[in-house]
TrEMBL record, chains A, B:
Molecular-function GO term, any one: metal ion binding
Cofactors: Mg(2+)
Cited Gene3D superfamilies: Farnesyl Diphosphate Synthase
A GO BP annotation: phospholipid biosynthetic process
Protein name as annotated: Octaprenyl-diphosphate synthase
Swiss-Prot/TrEMBL keywords: Isoprene biosynthesis, Magnesium, Metal-binding, Transferase
Matching Pfam families: polyprenyl_synt (PF00348)
PANTHER family: FARNESYL DIPHOSPHATE SYNTHASE
InterPro entries named among the record's database cross-references: Isoprenoid_synthase_dom_sf, Polyprenyl_synt, Polyprenyl_synt_CS, Prenyl_diphosphate_synthase
Family named by the database record: Belongs to the FPP/GGPP synthase family.
rRNA processing keyword on record: no
């Protein structure tokens, strides 16, 4: 059931991404190709799924596959574009220096470093352009969505989290520090995905707050599970190098709480997420998604 | 007269940037400091001046220094933020590998490469956030401004120009190729600055077209003069390494047209720019600005 929902969301956002990529100028240079490459090396498309799922929890009917791009599709594509840019830059030699991403060469390995920098820059601008293509919502909602995404991804959100993360390597910090770091680095965008879905449904601030609380909990849960999988799963299953955090003496939940402590924390966060959305009109898909995130094997 | 105008524009945009920088979270990490550093190493603030000057040409009264930030101030700060991010990333070792920018260490020299990547990423998101803070224009104008800036700076504009530029090094291409390259790499943002000024004045599409034509001409003129100064001026006056283009066998107007040919082209473009705005209500400041750009010594 939840797998089917995730696959449907993935299909929709990928159709939107492909349609929009076709609008990019095909010049003599490989920029558009490299942008397309970065987006194609996609995983579960979790953040787009959160956009659609938030809307479903507010009674959007996702069984209708609309003939035209909807605000949800454009918001989902925008958030995936921001997420992808952050991965492309994060993989750079000066950052995490990763050669593989989901089993494929990272952009700077497939092309070169300069191209990877430009691909990330292009994806970020493109994300905001995608939001401005939403023409079936009131303009003030679109402005609010641009502000939402800019704040979540910029120096008050994701980028600040990246900076905190780089500084944290090797240090022995507290669980609070780690929570703050992940609340920014991955949490801000996850929260934003849910809130963008709410904006698409013209939801009020109460619904946005509820979805933010859910996002906070599943964002942290996602990261705790990531840390658990890094020590319990092999590289082939993960699609990235396992054991890397331990090797780099990276600050993780497993390091701070132990493996069993981390597992208990994941369960606790999952329950918290599910409880927070209980009063929404149709919380079922968000409930299943929380379980999925908590119990995933890769 | 024009110097006074430029100084007034510079003062206004810098006041806006400082006020907005103070809103960034001061965490344990140096991200906000590094962002502020990148913005402080400012030059003439030409692009912000174009925002204000376009508005002046449409009868904005710039002699009133308003107590609150106006749409013009936020648009000027946004465009400077995008311009600054492009310089920070352009200076990286994998790109132009520059140690100095306007006589000061570049961001990756002052801090480190990872910080420079994150500063550029942060500045880009921040630029769009600044636009969404405009609350005295209709929301549909703000959406149009976000779209304008995203298209001008992203994979259809500036970033595509950067990619073309990197590929062009050492090649022997045509003047048309060089014009296309600069029309994207520097022209798109210059044109966008003028159009953002027009949006702030609620101008129609005719005025935006006129200002775009002016921007095309002065954008190219700016670049031709840059190429001329690279061979005729010393590093101290330029505030960057002179002769670098020649050394790198870079494609320039001087290389393609010769020094005298490039000077004639600059004059031609300047005259074209001035002619294009003749019918605007108050073109004087744009006329003087074109002369200033064409005749500058650094």
């Amino acid at each position: 059931m939840i797998e089917q929902h995730l696959n449907a969301c993935k299909a929709r956002v990928e159709a939107c991404l492909v349609a929009q990529l076709n609008q990019l100028p095909r010049s003599e240079v490989q920029l558009a190709d490299a942008v397309a490459y970065s987006l194609k090396v996609g995983g579960k498309r979790l953040r787009p799924a959160l956009v659609y799922s938030a809307a479903a929890s507010l009674r959007a009917d996702l069984t209708l596959f609309p003939p035209n791009l909807t605000p949800l599709d454009l918001a989902a594509a925008a958030i995936e574009s921001i997420h992808t840019y952050s991965l492309v830059h994060d993989d750079l030699p000066a950052m995490d220096n990763d050669d593989l991403r989901r089993g494929q060469p990272t952009v700077h390995r497939q092309y070169d470093e300069a191209t990877a920098i430009l691909v990330g820059d292009a994806l970020q601008a493109w994300a905001f352009e995608l939001l401005t293509q939403i023409d079936t919502l009131p303009a003030d909602k679109v402005v609010a969505m641009v502000k939402e995404l800019a704040q979540a991804s910029g120096p008050k959100g994701m980028v600040l989290g990246q900076a905190l993360d780089m500084q944290a390597t090797g240090a022995s910090e507290s669980v609070d520090y780690l929570k703050q770091l992940h609340s920014l680095k991955t949490g801000a965008l996850i929260r934003s995905a849910l809130r963008l879905g709410a904006y698409c449904m013209n939801a009020g601030s109460k619904e946005r707050r509820v979805l933010s609380a859910y996002g906070d909990a599943i964002g942290l849960c996602f990261q705790v599970v990531d840390d658990i999988l890094d020590v319990t799963t092999d590289s082939a299953t993960l699609g990235k190098t396992a054991g890397k955090d331990q090797e780099a003496d990276k600050l993780t939940y497993v390091k701070l709480l132990g493996l069993e402590g981390a597992k208990a924390e994941a369960q606790h966060l999952c329950a918290q997420a599910k409880a927070s959305v209980a009063d929404l009109p149709n919380p079922q898909v968000l409930v299943e998604l929380a379980d999925y995130i908590c119990n995933r094997a890769s």
